[in-house]
Amino acid sequence: MLNIDNLQVAVSGNEILHGITLHLPAGEVHALMGPNGSGKSTLACALAGKPGYQVTGGTATFRGTDLLAQLPEARARAGLFLGFQYPVELPGVSNAMLLKQAVNARRRQRGETEMDAMDFLVAVKERMAFMEMDETLLERGVNEGFSGGEKKRNEILQMLMLEPDLAILDETDSGLDIDALQVVARGINHLRSPSRAVLLITHYQRLLDHVAPDRVHVLADGRIVRSGGPELAKELEARGYGWLTGDVAGVEAR
Amino acid sequence: MNSKQSVEALLAKEYRDGFVTPIDEDRVPPGLNEAVIRLISEKKGEPDWLLAWRLAAFRHWQTMVEPTWAWVHYPPIDYQAITYYSAPKRRAGTRSGDAIDPELLRTYDKLGIPLAEREALAGVAVDAVFDSVSVATTFKDRLAEEGILFCSFSEAVRSHPELVRRYLGSVVGPADNFFAALNAAVFTDGSFCYIPPKVRCPMELSTYFRINAAATGQFERTLIIADRGSQVSYLEGCTAPMRDENQLHAAVVELIAEEEARIKYSTVQNWYPGDAEGKGGIYNFVTKRGECRGARSRISWTQVETGSAITWKYPSCILRGDDSVGEFHSVALTHHHQQADTGTKMVHLGRNTRSTILAKGISAGRGQNSYRGLVKVAKGATGARNYSQCDSLLIGDTCGAHTFPYIEVKEPSARVEHEASTSKIGEDQLFYCQARGIAPEEAVSMLVNGFCKEVFRELPMEFAVEARKLLGVSLEDAIG
Prior knowledge:
The complex is a heterodimer.
Chain A: E1 2-11, E2 14-24, E3 29-33, H1 40-48, E4 53-62, E5 65-66, H2 72-77, E6 80-83, E7 90-94, H3 95-109, H4 117-130, E8 141-142, H5 148-162, E9 166-170, H6 178-191, E10 197-202, E11 215-220, E12 223-228, H7 230-239, H8 242-245
Parallel strand pairs in A: 3-10, 3-11, 6-9, 9-10
Antiparallel strand pairs in A: 1-2, 1-4, 4-5, 7-8, 11-12
Helix pairs in contact in A: 5-6
Chain B: H1 3-11, E1 25-27, H2 34-43, H3 48-62, E2 86-88, H4 102-110, E3 124-130, E4 133-137, H5 140-144, E5 149-152, H6 153-159, H7 161-167, H8 178-186, E6 191-195, E7 204-210, E8 221-226, E9 231-239, E10 246-249, E11 252-257, E12 262-269, E13 281-292, E14 298-305, E15 310-313, E16 316-319, E17 325-334, E18 339-348, E19 354-364, E20 368-377, E21 385-395, E22 400-409, E23 415-424, H9 427-434, H10 440-456, H11 461-474
Helix pairs in contact in B: 1-11, 2-3, 3-8, 6-7, 10-11
């Protein structure tokens, strides 16, 4: 699904990622963990195509096509979803409006007809109920005045509507209370399927108690310093990152 | 309608109404003097009192100085280089009162304003003004059944001189300001509308202004009178060909609302804005004012200003009647090198008068956008209330937004509130939309429409659709 090889990324001329290699096959959920400033969000932004994140070396392919050559909106329409760590507000643009535009952009890409208003409403309300969200959020401006928890649920709602092949979720669990965390986890688990892949970026083991990862990678100083099974996350929880961050040689993540 | 596809299609286009109609013109030579004014008056077969009114305005205008207080910059206008009258010539074989020239019909069809009544826009009566004259008015007979007078200004002077004489210049006097005085001297046509007492106009009335001839100014007057207890909704649209020289449009609109009457006046202004380098475009220097003359009357202005190289206009309300209400809802957009200095005046004279101002300015490219508004409460206007909100939206960092609110309150019981905000469409917002598969142009259009939606809500349905489309076109290339 996603193959990253020796990816180097710079922001304002400073190299942040010094050669990331990570292979994420369809059907799997990988967790990407690491301390603050290790480059987790930089990887997410570079894969989604955020302006200012300059790829200085290496490759990234998504379902066999060169991801890095495409515009951000083309990546999204092709089935890549980025769940934002800090979702921005779009004042005056209703949540329903954004969702509808996004869903139809993806449908057009696949050569499908646009969703009519009725089908859209049924689909979105069903998913809102699943995410335990108030329907009034549909007519509010995107993330406008939303609480931290509502913003994160809203990201997952968008994901459920867009049904991406690859979801990169950047610290979707941060700032959530335990109830909200469970709802968000439920949303992610709902998306899991043999044809999809998820990259969960997180600080903590907490989310992984609810969404069991197939692989865990540890990022430190712009390099993947350790990869392993789910037990690695538990070990990190117990020991912290300190014992790994000294190891700068880097290993290949699989 | 699929709004998304249409926006995308429109984004690929430039100013779409910039064509020229090939038609013979009856033109007066350029220049401005009493002889030209006499010639215009004679061509229109006007009564002596109107010629005298024009000449008085002209003599006053000659003593006036062009205003310089607006936040706009342009080279001096040579008033002697402008042609003040240009009318399409009638084809040989057609007589006055006969069918409209097919070339004109084609022009209005192309603009989406069919003039043949069987094809005409449902529920909208149109007065079509082409350069200096009104070329057609639709649904006149249907309106006449209700006692509504809707015709060109020239026809009103001929058929209803008593009404014209009574109301002309009663809100915007012939010496009101430099451009209004110029208009009073040389105005050539425009629309006239009278709604009799207690009549609710059964359809939208509208004027479509088209400038076609080169090096010609357009100077029209609109006079709308809503008698006691009547209601009318009026729409105004305007376009012009793309030309490299600037053209002057100096119009006057006067509204009179008698007791318990309501007038809603909506404008979608799409004059040619000039090219991306700021060459050409219309100077839109317009005086619009309504008077709530009777108690409990209401005048509501809604404007969407996307065109013109320079916009200088302040649709205003004189709230003379007790308990009368004035409203101003505005979206003004400046892109490339466009400049706008626009706003309103709310003058509270009567007791318990209320006014609302909602102004949205959008600047992109090197556009300069100024809101200028006056809220004045006279002594004795007890219980007067005003609420003003001015929001500016910036796209990019080479444009400007300015706010000049003036508040003069002489009545201690008055309540005046003013709120203002400035925001910017940020790269983070655009990227967020892109990450959802939405291209930046679409994202801007979505954000701009969101910013304007309180104003669009005030527009009649068809106009709201038009306004949204126009914003899409006007913002083409607004983002790097």
